[in-house]
What does this fold into?
Amino acid sequence: MPRTHIVDLAHSSSPLPPPSRRKAPSKSQKASSARSATRDVPVAVEKVIQTLSESKLRFLVQSQLRDNPIFVNTIENLYLVKGKNIIRYHEDTESEDRGESEESELGEFSDADEDVESEDADAKAERKRREKVILVEDEEVVPKNAICENCKEEFELDGNERGDCVWHPGHKELNDEEDFWADHDPDCHGDPESFIDDSDFAEGFIWTCCDKAGDADGCKETKHKNKQNIVRARVPSPSPVPTPRKRKAERVTAMVRCATCNHMYDGNDDEEIEGCRFHPGYKKVSDKAEHWCDWDELRHGYCECFVDDPEHAEGFEWSCCGEISDKPGCELQEHTPASGGKRRRW
It folds into this structure.
């Protein structure tokens, strides 16, 4: 019978293999784990972002700008662009049309170049740079996204190629040659011009630039245009015209009629300007005066008919002060030139 050898593990002096240890994660694994953790945005947070108003979203972004430099750097990288990276739009030339050769684009403003045959390439480039006007300088930073002035679409200033902008340089007008408006009654259905932007009435309008229907795609394909990327030809400023020295003007009398008191006065005399004396009220028949005692309206006419007759001045009084109608005004102010106001009628 074979002998059995029993080993007591509790008191054995035999070396045991060390327990297996888990390998520590590397830095890249830690970063990957952190990124995956940040992606786990609660569904409720995503929903509330979709419902926030524009003002609240702006407030949220602005609050992060103050305390989160990483967030600021993200905005700079995604939504800002330097002037030197902007793809320029050369205004008032045909070089931006799709299909034009690169030679045409490089040859813009070339009329002046024909007169300067002796210039080398560097001198010509520098001169042309001075002849152009741009709004954004090379090192200036501006928002990357802009709205095109032609097609009204949003575009990126550094990703703007010829053919991206499809638009009509003309405008819509009624198409009277077709039968589209034959059964249209303006009194019943409304003015046809009021449907110019209605897609259901597109066939009733044509573009003046290409004579195509109102819903036709643009007939011109160019780069997008915005004030941030426009290059204009510099207009030389006219030479200043020397202004002749004037002699000291002599005092000239300028007689003007006052629109309030109807008197003539010297418009260049400050003392006379202050001398407008007038009545702010109106003339009315005076019941106190004995002027009308023997007056018979059936024979002589109504008293009011003689309100401006100097022979009957004592028969009227001013409503503002109660004085007889031929007395000087009861108030004083500056004269008002008749050319700047209407003549006062009593």
